[in-house]
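From the pipeline queue, job 12 of 40. The input is one protein chain; the requested action is below.

Action: predict structure.
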Amino acid sequence: MVGRSFKMPIRKETTVGESLLALENVSVSTPERVVFWIEQVSHLNFPKEVVGLAGISGNGQRILGDIINGMQSPPHR
């Protein structure tokens, strides 16, 4: 696609250590569970990884960010 042969760079092997952030099946809804703002979100974040949280306004990214930062506790079932 570049008009000449292209040699892929050699990637160094990485070792996966202990996760720094772990979310497992995080859900947030209205008390009646009629509307879910966040439903079953899971994520692992390892050292040297950068994560961005984006979405259309009103899709729960602020609530998820608050849970990750400890500003809001996820509801217990």
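Job complete. The beta strands are 21-29, 36-45.
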